[in-house]
Amino acid sequence: MSLQAETGQTAEVKTPWQRVQNARHPKRPHTLDYVERILTDFQEIRGDRLFGDDAAIVCGMARLEGQPVMLVGEQKGRDTKQKLLRNFGMPKPEGYRKALRAMQMAAKFGRPIVALLDTPGAYPGIDAEERGQAEAIARNLREMARLPVPVISVCIGEGGSGGALALGVGNQVLMLENAVYSVISPESCAAIIYRDAAKAEQAAAALRLTAEDLLKLGLIDGIIPEPPGGAHEDYDEAARFLKERLLQSLAELAPLSSHEVVQKRYEKFRKMGNFFQGS
Prior knowledge:
Blueprint: H1 3-7, H2 16-23, H3 31-38, E1 40-45, E2 57-64, E3 67-74, H4 80-85, H5 93-109, E4 113-119, H6 126-130, H7 133-146, E5 151-160, H8 161-165, E6 172-176, E7 180-182, H9 186-193, H10 200-207, H11 211-216, E8 222-224, H12 235-253, H13 258-271
Parallel strand pairs: 3-4, 4-5, 5-6, 5-7, 6-8
Antiparallel strand pairs: 1-2, 2-3
Helix pairs in contact: 3-12, 5-7, 9-10
C-alpha cells in the first residue's frame, strides 16, 4: 500500500535534500516525544555499569498496548541545555553499552525490543575513542544479531552511519517517511567526493539515503507515513502512525520461536550487498 493510500493525503514529492532538512527539523519529535505518546509504564534504565550514563541514549522497560517491551532510543536535545546534556544526540561508548545491557535484559525476560534511531553519528571525540567507541559499536552489532527476542528498529530522524547501525540490527528495520539513513552525512560526503561541502544537496541525491531508496534496495522493510508537512507538524498523528506499525510488526514476529527470530535476522542481513548476475 502506498503512503498516500495509508494517510489519505496527496503526498508532496520531496527531493533527497528536502528529506534531509525535514529529518533535521528543530521541532521534529525525538524518542522521548514518542515514548510519552505510545508507551505506558516507562521505567528508565541508566548507566552501563562500566563507566557511567550517557543521556544521548534512552533505555527503559515499558508497555505498548499492554504488551511488555524494551525501548532503546537515541535522544537529541531541544534547547541549548538539553542539547549539551544529550550531546546533540551523538552517543559515546557508555551509551551503546547501556543499550546493550538493556537489550540483554530484554532477552533474559523475553521482551521484544523497540529501537529508535536518531543520531547524526556516534560521538568522534577523543574521550569516546579512549573508552573504545569502535569496540562498543562492533559489540552491539554482534550481540544484537544473537538476541533471541524480536527486534524492531525504526529510523525516526537521522540515521547516521555506525552511530545508528549500532541499534539497527533488527528483524524488521523501518523508517519514517522523511527520515534519512546513510553511511555519511551529505556535507561530509560532498567534502570528500566533490572537495566542496557546499555540494551537499548533490551528495544527498547520490547517497540514496531516503526511505524510498532504501526500500527499493532491500535495506529496510517498510516506510511509516508522516502527517502532511512532516512529523513536526503533528506529534500525535506521527505517534499514531508509529504505534500502529509497531503493533503490526510485533504481531508478525510473535509466532516465531527464539531460534527462528535469530535465524531470520541473520539471513536478512546476510542478503544485503549480495548481487548475482545470470550467465
